[in-house]
C-alpha cells in the first residue's frame, strides 16, 4: 500500500544540505574545488518489479463520505475528466498525465463512473482502515479505481500523522482478484500545513507565504494534489509490484518520489516557479476542462530518470 505525506523533516534536511553544499563561504577542498563539486547527484530510479499495471480504459468511481458541496464535488470531477482531455490549452492536466504512458504498456484512460454520496456519516466521523476498505468495496468492478473521499470533519486513522491519503487493493469476487482503491482526506480544518501545502504555511521548516489556491478552496485544492499523486501511483504500482523505489511497504512512487516540486527552481520549502492567474492571483501550473486551473506535483519521467514539473 502506498501512502503520501508532506514530510517536514525531509524538507528540513534537504534545505540544510542545499545550503551546506552551496555555501560560498565554505572552505575549498585541497584540490581547489568546493565541496559541492565533490558531490555528484545520483539519478532517481524507480525500478519495475514485473507486476501488472493499470492500463487501457479505467473507470474511476467516487465515494463521497461526509459533507461536500456541489462545487467541491465538481472541482474534483473536472480534475479527473481533465486527465484525458487533450483539448485544454497548455500547460494542461492531460500533458501531465501523459508521462504515465512512458511507464510500460501504454496509456491509462480514466473516466468518471459512479458517484456514491454518504452524507449521513453512516460509519461515524472517526474511521479506521477497515472502514475505508468497506466504503471502497461498495462498487465491484475490477477495471475500476474506487476513490474514497472523506470530508473535512472526518478523522481517519493516521490522517495528518503519517499520511494525507493512501492507495491499495481490495480482494474482490472469489477473493483472488484485486481491485484498486484510493483514499484522500480533506485536511482544511485538521492539518492544512501538512496535507494542503503549498496553499497553507507548513507546520515545520521554512515559513514562506502560502500560494493562493486556484479553485479558492484550500482543502479541495490540497486534495487535488494528493489525489493526483495517488492516481499516478495507482496506475504505475497498483499491487505493490509495479514501479517504485525502496521497500514495497513504504514505496516511493511516480509522484511521491518527487516531494515538494511544482515548478522549476524548487527547493525544500519553495514549490518552484509556477504560473499566476492575473485576475485572481491564484497559483497553478495546469489547465483543465471547464476553464479549471490546478496545481499538480512533478512526476518522475522514466525516459530521463528525473522529476518533471509541468512548468
UniProtKB/TrEMBL annotation:
Signal peptide: 1-20
Keyword Secreted belongs to the record: yes
Compartments it resides in: Secreted, Extracellular space, Apoplast
Keywords attached to this entry: Apoplast, Secreted, Signal
GO cellular component, one term: apoplast
Protein name: Phosphate-induced protein
Family affiliation: Belongs to the EXORDIUM family.
Species of provenance: Parasponia andersonii
